[in-house]
Amino acid sequence: MLNTEQQAAVDAPLGYNLVIASAGTGKTSTIVARIEKLLINKVRAEDILLLTFTNKAAAEMIKRVEQKFPKEAQRIEAGTFHAVGYRWLKSINSNLVLKSPKELKTLFKSIYERRDFTRLEVQPYAASTLFEYYSFYQNSIEELSFGEWIQKRNSEHAPLAAIYEDIIQEYEELKASYGFLGFNDLLLEVIRHKGKIKSFKEVLVDEYQDTNNLQARFLNAINCESLFCVGDYDQSIFAFNGANIDIIASFTKRYPDARVYNLSKNYRSTKYILELANRVIAHNKRIYPKRLEVMNNRNAKSPKLLVFEDLYDQYEAIAQKIYLSSTPKEEIAVIFRNNASADGIEAALRQRGVLCKRKGSRSLFDMKEIQALFDIVAILINPKDLLSFIHILQYAKGIGANIAKDLFEGLQRCGEGDLKKGLLEPLDLYDPFSKKERNYQLALFDDLSQLGSKSRFKEIAILDNPVLKHPKLSQEGAKFLDELARLYSLRIKKPSSYIEHIKNSYIFNEIVNTLAAKRAKQKDGTIDEVIYEDARQKIMRRIALMEHLAKRYNDVYRFYNAMVLGSSEMEEGEGVNLLSVHASKGLEFREVYIVDLMETRFPNLKLVAKSGSIEEERRLFYVAVTRAKEILYLSFAKYDRVKRVEFLPSRFLKEAGLL
DNA sequence: ATTAATCCAGTTTTT
DNA sequence: CTGGATTAAT
After folding, report:
1. A102 touches strand C (CB under 7 A)
2. Which residues of chain A are under the pLDDT cut of 50?
3. Sign, Cα dihedral of A473, A476, A482, A487
4. Cβ atoms A322, A576 nearer than 8 A
């Protein structure tokens, strides 16, 4: 089954082992065989840790181990660095609540916007740029402070470094006070809790070339006897996330006893495909010599170049080719550099009734109703979550971000820091909204005229709550608070019960009404009843889907976190695979179409200019090409008639010898 | 001051 | 399609 090279790697003694595995050389089989070997040698399943870049990859390997070790396989600790980190942290503190990068960015922005950048000669980085630099910094730098790093990067920003650092500090404090954790925090927290992490006999790391310094520190924090790392220099495509090729390159220096194994027999692609990939990657400076032996000689066909006058002609023609292809649709992939390319293809395929799946179909989880649903869950499981509270309260008429924030802070005060207590058993504060310590005499007078009466509100149960005195609280706002109090008073356990209760709540029905009305709004401002009903039904169907998903979970935190962060890993449907190059990593298909091979698009020259490199773009091309087993189409269009842009063919087509 | 509505530009890759 | 900016309304 295994060839001698693979077998040698599998048989490696415990210690520091590095396997250099080019595309299609049976990397997965080798890892699976290694795990089986460990199990045969009586290593306990729970002493094996498998780290991958997607949870799907981990699940696939475990599934294969399961065939020979049905009992042990599930006990192996496996997943992405982040997923595994989450599990460990959860065992230390069971109430972890993750927040999406998007939300954290909004939080970051709100802090940024309070700073005064006037009277400065340098144009400061935009909030979102700074946020991304910070994330990159967390992933790659340890020795320098953020401020030091940023001025080293660009000395013009030296005068701003102190302000940047101040923003970061406030951001971190606020994040902690809201009980939020981001992706990076998952790894950073594990490193901080180093001593409390259980130890392992062997840790296996897939896609080792894409690990960044933060992940390397994470690995160092794990106590283990043996490391088994698998990677390929030419497939390093995560530099933008801090992936550091030195980590794999310096393996033997860092571990003097390290052994290195090479897998050089390619079983995946035909020789034409492999030759094309190698011709292009040869333009990159070689870190080590690459000599690949082709093992797959069935149906060898030359890769084909497709040229189109217009971008959309391209999508149509490719959809047509796929429609007519005799290859099973699951065995076909369309691969692109930028996700924007997917929409055109998807539409063209749908038109022909060809099913397709798009990984990370954000769409569903980006829907307002889904966000609202999970915002309510977030408030219920994390009463510190000001952001979700604001999002929800804003659906009440007359309530905006400012009043919502006032209410939240008022409730926290009435509950001595606890929102739930503030709603259910509030302290009887005279004025829960007073801003800090004001002049006492003035404030007393001032507030008397400002505060409203609690008895303004009808049909609510929390009549005695001091926050009802907020002068700008609307009837609907009060009803929202009341309903929130009711939801808090329920003792809900199962994730699906959460969804059910929320679905039946006044708050959620108001939100559904608002959203459906918005979607049914005509140009003249009237609401089309038919569209409204239709929009409503669609929303309820999505909620039902969520309720269904929730049934697979017993723990609401797990469910929430999986939905908020893992949503991109869920793929819907079946059929043709629509994938970005990054998402295609580790996968293989019989028939592959690489589209939009135009200079500026692929290579993405905007990114090259900003922070990337042409070498990385070339590796991306290499990864895309080597996904193909038998049939490969490379395609480009000369013109985009919608945007009126002319294109030149990608340089990679020339390097491949196709032009 | 705050919220609501409306119009305009822009859109990188992942956990 | 969404975030941002601008404007009208409370």
Report:
1. yes
2. 436-449
3. negative
4. yes
pLDDT of residue A361: 58
In the prediction, which pLDDT does A253 show? 93
Q: Residue A278: which residues within 8 A CB-CB, separation 6 or more?
A: A290, A292
Pairing of strands A200-205, A224-231: parallel
Distances in Å between the Cα of A458 and the Cα atoms of A181, A599, A608, A643 are: 39, 64, 61, 55
Give dist(CA A474, CA A477) in Å, integer.
5
Q: What is the pLDDT of residue A215?
A: 96
Confirm whether any atom of chain C, the nucleic acid strand, is less than 7 Å from CB of A366.
yes
- The Cα A316–Cα A475 span in angstroms is 53
Q: What is the pLDDT of residue A572?
A: 64
Q: For tokens 């470094």, what's the residue? A: A161
Say which residues have a Cβ less than 8 Å from residue A218's Cβ, sequence separation at least 6: A81, A85, A187, A190, A191
In the block, tokens 């696939």 appear at: A60
pLDDT of A568: 61
Estimate in Å the CA A624 to C1' C2 gap, whole number: 30
Diameter of chain A measured on Cα atoms: 90
Structure tokens at A65: 């181990």
A587 touches strand B (CB under 7 A): no
Three-state SS annotation for A51-78: EECCHHHHHHHHHHHHHHCCCCHHHCEE
Q: Please give the Cα distance from A304 to A595 (Å, whole number).
A: 12
User: CB of A183 under 7 A from strand B?
Assistant: yes
Q: Find the residue closest to C10 using CA and C1' atoms.
A: A398
What's residue A146's pLDDT? Answer: 94
> Do residues A329 and A575 lie in contact, with contact meaning Cβ atoms separated by under 8 Å?
yes
- A636: number of Cβ within 10 Å: 25
Long-range contacts of A140-143 (CB under 8 A, 24+ apart): A140/A212, A140/A213, A140/A214, A140/A242, A140/A244, A141/A213, A142/A213, A142/A217
Are the CB atoms for A197 and A190 separated by under 8 Å?
yes
Give the Cα separation of A584 and A115 in Å (integer): 41
Q: How many CB atoms lie within 10 A of CB A631?
A: 21
Within 7 A of a protein CB, which nucleotides of strand B?
A: 1-4, 6, 11-15
Protein-to-nucleotide distance from the CA of A637 to the C1' of B9, whole angstroms: 25
Tokens of A90: 């959860």
Predicted pLDDT of residue A219: 95
Give me the pLDDT at residue A414, please: 85
What does DSSP say about strands A628-640 and A645-646: parallel, antiparallel, or unpaired? Answer: antiparallel
- The reply to whether A654 Cβ lies less than 7 angstroms from strand C is no
Is the CB of A341 within 7 Å of strand B? Answer: no
Give strand letter and number of the nucleotide nearest A616 (CA to C1'): B13
